[in-house]
Amino acid sequence: MGGEVQNDAAIMAALGRHMSRAVQKQAVAAGNLANLDTPGYRTKEVRFSDALENELLSSKALTTTDSRHLGGTVVEARSESGDVGGLDPRRDGNNVQLDRELLALGRAGGDFNAAQTILAAKFRLVRYAINEGR
Amino acid sequence: MSTLSSAINASASALDAQRTRMEVAVSNMANAESTRSANGQPYRRREVVLESQSPFETGFNQHVTQAAGVRVSAVLEDQSEFTKRHEPSHPDADADGNVSVPNVQVPEEMVDMLGAARAYQANLTAIGLIRDTIQRALDLAK
Fold it and tell me: pLDDT tier at B118 (50, 70, 90 boundaries)?
């Protein structure tokens, strides 16, 4: 944000969005794993960049009236899931890859843990302030 | 939380489906030599048909990504020909001394069972990872 000071609430909200993003990734990967042997099933993925782009292109983008306002960065954690291209389907039309999905699950779990660690640290600071440093 | 519980539900539905697959494969193998069944014919090989469940069935919050579960839509009988085996001494042999034995191929069933076991394991791993995520989220309240 170009050297601007962000308040705690904005950082916490961003961490929260990061966590729900990781959760959605995990959910989609779990759904793919569940359908490992369903004929005709296509691997799904969450598309955040598309959702972000749509949000930025849409007229809903926030206008700033003050240089300290954060324009257009408040994006709803909205996402869409769609079929993944470029995976070779098996003979039954299913293109779920076990290793790919387990990796996605693990990676999303790591993302979630990272954000959770930072958020927990933030909460500790807030509690410290509430307790007047005790 | 609803997304995480949908993920656990999806994985649980897969455990259920894969267990059914395993049971059917076991029953096929157990009956590989059963020349009589309830309808008087030899045992017919059974096959599980899996079907993906639409995550939006509930109509709940369509913008939130939900995990798609899986269910057993049918257990069908394999209508392929029975195998003929020449064994005149068998009580179910026909006039030419041939016995119709079930259309079960044991190696095929073994492969199916391995696939089901592997998928079961993968989904169990997924449940473990999602449970870790839920635990971490709860840790925030500490």
Answer: very high
